[in-house]
Known about the structure:
The protein is α+β, with helices and mostly antiparallel strands.
Amino acid sequence: MSLKGRVVPDPVDIGQIAAPPFVRLPDIATHFAARATRLDALAPGNPLEPFLRFVADIARAQHKAAGALSAGMLPGDDHIAFCKAHRFALIERLTWVRDASFVSGARAIARALIGVRMPEAAASALAAFTARDDKSIDALADRLLREEQEPWDMAEVPFVAAALELHWARMAARLDPAVPVPLEPRSLCPVCGSTALTSVVEAAAGRQGSRFLCCGLCQARWNYTRIQCAHCVSTKGIAYHHVEGGSKAVRAETCDECRTYTKALYLEEAPDLDPVADDLATLPLDLLVGEAGWRRARLNWYLMPQDEEAPEPLSATSA
């Protein structure tokens, strides 16, 4: 695919960085509704408009499901103390045993999507997902978390991804924000141990100029060094790029050490930026940076290519 334009480097300006809290946890009452609103705003005129509107409908389904589910399990005091002492993720994505509220959430999302306009292939995938039994939905979720999904699973990935996001975000939202501690490497989410999907550079008072990595699973954000690779933690060969002639609200942070990139979102440019929505809406930046020789550090579950290898995931010492 050819595109007009090119990626151009941006000068590095750290600015006046505040001293923000280490972790910001999602507000489950507003998180997915805000994402849907952002996707609706980004969709008109975007080459991916039908797809962005489809993901907006998924976010609305997540919001609706969040208000209808029981509380679910949280880690106990002993578990939290152990994780803090050993610098482990509190609700580690590969080892945490999901309770029944996960499948309940998956089915609530599927019900909320009944009658929603979507591509024929997505409708068929939703029907297949709805027809799965509880054990099969859990197995599909396990494969996605381990990045071992089979080719026949791919069409259903958006639905199980939405259920996983909802499940972990609901747990993260109920944690004490003072509890999570930095992991080793610090680029891993302190709540669930995932690698970052994107990062945001804050503009609000008290956080202005500070950078947070954004988890694509539990939706937590954690404070991170401004000029440092969000994947391999190198401080060498870091550069920032945007599409020539385009917005600078979303830029690609490239690392010459691991040859990956992670998108950085600048809230001073657009205060309503959403890590998932704006990642999906800026596919031309991915294509141009990919043509220049970098790979994504973490794939977006809603836009997973079937013909590319993802970079090797980083693993915490608890994995």
